[in-house]
Structure formats: structure tokens, C-alpha cells
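Any chance you could type out a protein's amino acid sequence plus the matching C-alpha cells because I've never seen that pairing?

——
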Amino acid sequence: MNLYFKLFTAVILVLCTSLVSVAAPFGKIDIPPLSERWFGIYVNGERVGFYRERIDKEEGGYRMEGNGSVRMNVMSFSKEASIHETYLVTKSLALRSLDVEQTINGSSSHLSGKVYGGAIHIKSEAYGKTTNRSIKFKGEVYPGPALNLYPLMRTVSPGSSYKIQAFDPEEPRIKVIQITVLGEDKTSEGVPALKLRNNLYPIVNNDIWVDGHGNTLEESVRDGLVITKAEPPAALGAFICDWALAKKDLIYDFSLVRVQPPIKDLKKLTGLEVEIRGWDDALPLLQGGGQQVIKGSNGLVTFRTGSLVQISSESKAQGPTDAQLKPADKIEADAPEIMAQAKALATGVKSQKDLARVLASWTANWLKDTIDDGGSAVESFKSKRGNCQTHARLYTALARAAGIPTRFVSGLVYLDGKGFLYHSWAESFIEGRWVSVDPTYNQIPADPTHLKLLEGHLPEDMAPIIAIIGRIKITILNSAY
């Protein structure tokens, strides 16, 4: 199978599952590896994208799900793409049905279809138009994520070669791919593997290394110019989180959580109750800051915010710690310029709540909102630019310098007419409770669509978002006005 079905058209696909590969003899396997795997995509050693795939048993076969994003510029060729894909396949990996959403260089499309009667019957939605077509074929056709697995579920002796029909969702069309088993080899990191090669891309070789369980370990195009390799989620967590919080490029499409119907009259909203499906128990259930979180069953979690929060739940939230008044890495509350600015802004202000408002407003006006992170509080104070993380760091530094216990938080916020996006803001402990403060949007308290998922500003603090990003679904249960 392949991490992306067509590199230079950037339709990203990968197969394999199971986070840790254990050495196994290279022989025929009866079933594909079942679980989840993450992959990093690199061009000339620079990480330019990622892909996540999961394979599960399904009645009559398997479900192959994947999503990811890539942004690359290779030899004057530029491509940006994201993909959400689901394939149902038979026990032999032949295609049964498909559902693919993809965005390539800003153009979005949605394909859905089923295989029957010797054809793939496809519904295509793009550019506001819906079309239906059938692609006839003889024999069996396979989705991109099955390509690397196909030989291992047949014969894996060196020199064995297969020609199979593969479905390309971008055009869409069926193309003939030749896959050859080259023999035992090692990955670029010295891991024993079985090396495969296919002619997926014209002119250049596409080399693949898989383990004895069928897990793809590495792919290489044009002798290592573009490399895809399996990585643990922790290694990709900070990278993906940074892209999501910065709303960079195609991560926007990958991380956006759509809701239907959209929230109305956002400016008048006083409280919100939502149900999140697909929650991961690795994430904490954070209370306070204007929210209440209730865990249900089967991966369901309910968030209540604003006026819908029960007062008793606020009292259960943990109070401030000494660390939330002290300087920290990138939050230099003791820097001379930060302390001087906090003191100047506090002049004549009578309450901590009013001071928090002044600090949030000043931060929102001082920093020009950008996609890229402006760095530490001091760096952004000087450059006057940065994204939501930058705003939250600068405000937190100023608030701590002014004697207000403050913490950096991240989660989801609603973008009017779009859905929920990942975002960072702050919470200050004022008048005996945590109050949400969004210095990017100059809101105190922040509007009720702010759903706090994590506390902490370091990459390792925010990396756990990888457990749910691109996976959760949100249902609006109640809106208060």
C-alpha cells in the first residue's frame, strides 16, 4: 500500500497498523495488521506532512480509514493536499465501497461509491455540482491503502511480481500497478524489513519497506527525495498540534470539526451544551474556566459552558498554584519590558477583573494576528506579531507580572459558519474562580464556544490533542441566549 496514492498529485494514502513493529519472519499473512499507525512525510529531510491510518475488521472484510495533510515543493513543483478516506474491502482486500473527501490546491471534492455488477458506481461532488458515473472493470480492483499489503497476503518470495488494478480517487480512474518483491533489506534506520517496489509514479522508483506483520515502515520516492516513515504519535503530536493551532494551510481542513446545524447568533450566545463523540481517555476532563465536562459511555463526553454550567461544578475546579504566578519558558513574566508594561497598564485600575480586561485588550491590539507563532512573550512584545499561541503567552506573562494567577489553555472554538477549530487562550484566577480570557479575540470571559481540552503551553502539554484531532464529531445539544 502507499502513504500517498500519487505523490505528485498528493493524494495521500497509507496502510498498516499497530504502533510498534515486532520482528517477524517474512512470509504470507492471513489478515492485515489491525489498529492504528501514524506516518511523517519528509522532503529533503524536512517534515512536510503526516498521515494517520486505521484498519478494523468489518463484516465480510475490513474497514480502512485514513486522513492526513501534505504541503510540498519539489523541483519547482508545488502541491498542497488533504484527504479523509474510508474504504470497505473484502477479506482479500478487494474494494467494496469508498468515501473520499479531498482538497488539492484549494479545490475540494467528495467521492462516494460502491462496487457491484462489474463496475464502480461513483457519486462525485465538486465545484457545487453532483455527477454520477460508472467505471467498468474485470476481475478485482484495490484501493491505494491495500497496495503494500497485497503481496504479503499472497506469495512473498523474492522476485515474485503482481499486476493489479488500483483505484485512483483523484481523477477518478482505475490504473494498473505492478508490484515486485525484491527481498529482505533494511530501512534507512537499519530495521530489518521486506523490500517492495511498484511503478505507482512514472519514471522514478517507489520503494517500500514492510515488516513481517504487514506494517509499512518506510517509503522512498526518487532515491530518498521524498520519504514517508512510520512514527509514534508522540513524535508527530507537537508538529500536528502546532499546525492545527496556527490553522495552517490544509491542516485547517483536517482539523476542522463541522457541526450541523451551525450555531446561530454567536454574539448573543450565553451558554452551550455539546456532545463530543470519539473522545480519547488519554485526555483529561478539565473543569473550571466557565466549563463543566461530564463523561458518558462509548467515547461520549458532554461539555457545558457559560450560563449552562452548574455553579457547584465551578467550586470543584482546582485553585491556582505557585507556578501560575511565576515566569516560565517563553512566558517571561519577570522580563523588564514585560514587568514595565504590566505596571503601566495597571495604573489607575481598581480590580483584578478590570485589569485582566485591560491586559487582554492591550494584547489583542498590540499583536498583529499571523499564521506563524511569534515565539515567546518577550519576542512577540518586540515583534508585535503572532498567532493565538503567541497572544496567550504574552497575555499570560503580563497577567502574572501584574499578580494575577494565569494559565495557558488550548482546545476548540467555534468559527462562525464553519465549525470548531483548535485554538489557544488563557484562564486567570479572579475573585475566587477561573475566568476564561481570549486575548486573540479580546474576550473576557471568552465566548461559550471555547471548549478547553488541555492546560499548559509546552509542546508536550499540547501534543495529546493528536489523540482526537481529525477524529471527533460534535453535536450541539443546547444553546442558551
Q: What stands out?
A: The chain has eight helices and 27 strands. The longest strand covers residues 61-74. Residues 114 and 237 are 35 Å apart (CA to CA).
